[in-house]
Design brief:
Aminopeptidase; elongated; 264 residues; nine-stranded mixed β-sheet; two-stranded antiparallel sheet; binds coenzyme A; acyltransferase; 11 strands; transferase; alpha+beta; GNPNAT1-like
């Protein structure tokens, strides 16, 4: 019997020591359990089902991202019922309830590497370095919904275990991530005191990057319809590219965050 699924949040965390060539179950004890659960789901779906190489699944955005993992409580029989020769129960069945990770999604803060080039083919993450430092602030090429400058956050790596698909689990995760960011719209805004103006790519205070509700996804083309249902619009200007052998498109959505995203 399955109980109501529950969601656990994992904020940005130190993942030093994570070995991308090893499976989630073989990682050091220092790696947070919620993140390992997210990687278990990603291994099942992206690596085993979709054929992405294991070492390409973990990337340098994982440490600075927020992750959500959804669990189902699964009741399993650990010792069966025992009966005597006359059929009388001599020992009751023993069962245990275990929480199983069944889905995950992540939210990557700005800044990002440049938008992928239309028609290009990428493996590992597009233009990604293996450094744990976030990419620098840049002026990107303008697309249909992005002027190349506005900070945007990126939803991605959504995955639901095959046997749990088709019953709205992905929608619950997308809603959880979007509700969280609407409630915490300033969470990713950089601190000028810590970063310094130069590293923010600006010399004037009115150009300090402030998140104004813009969200992006790099959607697998076959899932674009689902992202449309979740409020995203296809960005024609971003074109189509290939990541890990899978066709991708860019999509954007602007969340209403009231006056909290107004530039100072
Ligand atoms: C895509 C995925 C996360 C959807 O998970 P799910 O739990 O089955 O999705 P939901 O049940 O919440 O479906 C949400 C909506 O999208 C639609 N949908 C789901 N998958 C779809 C697909 N592949 N194509 C078109 N529509 C789809 C559903 O019909 C549903 O619409 P509704 O709300 O109007 O009924 C899941 O199929 C998956 O893990 N796929 C493999 C990994 C992957 O491709 N990730 C996407 C990377 S961009």
């Amino acid at each position: 019997m399955a109980a109501t699924p529950f969601i656990v949040f994992q904020g940005p965390t130190n993942l030093e020591g994570y070995n991308r060539k090893r499976r989630p179950s073989e990682q050091p004890a220092s790696i947070p359990k919620t993140f390992l659960d997210a990687m278990e789901v990603r291994e099942q779906v992206f690596v085993l089902e979709q054929g992405v190489p294991l070492e390409n699944e973990y990337d340098s955005d994982d440490a600075r991202a927020c992750h959500w993992v959804i669990y189902a409580s699964v009741n399993t029989i650990i010792e069966p019922e025992e009966t005597d020769a006359a059929g009388n129960i001599v020992k009751q069945q023993q069962s245990a309830t275990k929480s199983q990770p069944i889905g995950t999604i992540r939210l990557v803060p700005f800044p990002h590497t440049p938008h992928p080039e239309p028609g290009a083919s990428y493996t590992l993450d597009p233009l990604e370095s293996t450094s744990s430092e976030p990419p620098p602030y840049i002026v990107d090429r303008a697309t249909t919904y992005h002027d190349g400058k506005e900070p945007y956050i990126k939803l991605g790596r959504i995955a639901i275990l095959k046997e749990f698909r088709g019953s709205g689990i992905a929608k619950i995760l997308v809603n959880a991530a979007m509700t969280w960011v609407q409630q915490n719209p300033t969470y990713f805004n950089p601190s000028v005191e810590i970063m310094g103006m130069n590293n923010l790519g600006t010399s004037s205070t009115d150009e300090i990057p402030v998140w104004q509700g813009l969200m992006c996804v790099h959607a697998q083309e076959q899932v674009a319809k689902a992202w449309e249902r979740w409020g995203f619009h296809l960005d024609e200007g971003m074109g189509t590219w290939v990541e890990e052998g899978i066709d991708h498109v860019g999509m954007f959505q602007r969340l209403n965050i009231g006056n909290q995203g107004i530039l100072p």
